[in-house]
TrEMBL record:
Signal peptide (from-to): 1-21
Organism for this UniProt entry: Flavobacterium hercynium
Keyword Signal on entry: yes
Keywords: Hydrolase, Signal
UniProt-listed InterPro entries: Glyco_hydro_beta-prop_sf (IPR023296)
SUPFAM superfamilies noted in UniProt: Arabinanase/levansucrase/invertase
Taxonomic placement: Bacteria, Pseudomonadati, Bacteroidota, Flavobacteriia, Flavobacteriales
Protein name per Swiss-Prot or TrEMBL: Glycosyl hydrolase family 43
Length: 343
């Protein structure tokens, strides 16, 4: 009898632990009847099976994402790693290219994120970049940001200067450097491409954001991780008082190793930052959270196959792109046009 009571007590403790031992919900959500400052979000992305083409998913909380258009392409003409930027004219711009070895960056424009038309093509003279005379003809993942202070766009991408070898395939990736060009209208571009950072480190997937009086460069550290370079293949942040730098050496890793394609959005209440990144090759997405871009950051739980532990979720087989805040009216327009895939 005593043994039975002990077993029942132990079972109750274990059940209680299984119910309560879970991560709390991420901060940043709107409580009660309060109105969200960031009403909705668009994730423009590719998929594992259709790399480099344009798909949409949407979210109302920045955490749980649902496919549009029955998981089919939303714009057939686009190719690239999608990155969307809202300009001072209220229009949206998306940059891409047909492949890393393509010589031209293609830019499209839209009033509503539904209908896109060609805006311009830009062919950078990579060999003209100061202190980068041996640049290879590669243009990786062009990204756009409109800087209100200087009233101009900055477009960034990564370009290597060394080919890989059978003995050292990683030297190609370690030789990636982030280049940029400025433009008032994304039709004419100022001067030749320049290197964004004065430190000598492989960087890809770089984008810029200004928060408060500081500019932040969100990067992927493309050095291979070792005991002596533990931050390799992780997401990190550099900081500057000026759009063009100089940027501080990046802080400690925000993500685990072998993560790339970061995306940054503010929470619905606009008090928290959500940083997403892909575990490659197309395995899953991670999420780190902070109340300011200087950190500290912590990692939320997802892709655990236990719903109580999954604090964020994605459609299957989505791959990298960009996330932007949109209005509820824009969200409704996208859902009306394309239809939403409810889980």
């Amino acid at each position: 009898m005593k043994t039975t009571k002990q077993f029942i007590l132990l079972l109750a403790v274990l059940i209680g632990f299984s119910v309560t031992a879970q991560q709390p919900d991420p901060p940043g959500q709107v409580k009660g009847n309060a109105k969200a400052k960031n009403e909705a979000y668009l994730f423009a992305h590719m998929t594992h099976n259709d790399y480099g083409r344009l798909y949409y998913s949407v979210s109302l909380d920045g955490l749980h994402w649902e496919n549009l258009n029955s998981g089919k392409r939303v714009f057939e003409d686009y190719k690239g790693h999608p990155d969307i930027c809202k300009g001072p004219d209220g229009k949206y711009y998306i940059a891409g290219n047909t492949g890393d070895d393509a010589k031209t960056i293609n830019i499209w424009v839209s009033d509503d994120l539904i209908t896109w038309k060609k805006h311009s093509d830009y062919t950078p003279d990579l060999k003209s970049t100061p202190d980068y005379a041996h640049a290879l003809q590669r243009i990786g993942a062009p990204k756009l940001y409109f800087d209100k202070d200087s009233d101009q766009f900055i477009m960034t991408w990564h370009t290597p200067h060394l080919e890989g070898t059978k003995e050292d395939g990683e030297r190609y990736w370690a030789s990636q450097r982030t280049l940029y060009v400025l433009s008032k209208d994304l039709k004419t571009f100022k001067g030749t491409p320049n290197r964004l950072f004065d430190w000598d480190m492989g960087t890809i997937d770089v984008f810029i954001r200004k928060v408060g009086d500081s500019y932040y460069a969100i990067i992927k550290d493309e050095t291979y991780p070792t005991l002596y370079w533990t931050t390799g293949k992780t997401i990190r942040i550099g900081k500057s008082k000026s759009l063009l730098g100089p940027y501080s050496l990046p802080q400690q890793s925000i993500s685990p190793n072998f993560r790339e394609a970061p995306m940054l959005i503010p929470s619905p209440d606009d008090k928290i930052w959500y940083m997403y990144y892909e575990q490659y090759p197309g395995v899953s997405y991670g999420l780190s959270i902070a109340d300011n871009l200087n950190g500290p950051w912590y990692q939320a739980s997802g892709y655990t196959f236990f719903s109580d532990w999954d604090k964020y979720s994605f459609p299957e087989k989505v791959r990298h792109g960009c996330m932007v805040t949109i209005s509820k009216n824009e969200y409704d327009g996208l859902v009306k046009k394309f239809g939403i895939v409810k889980k």
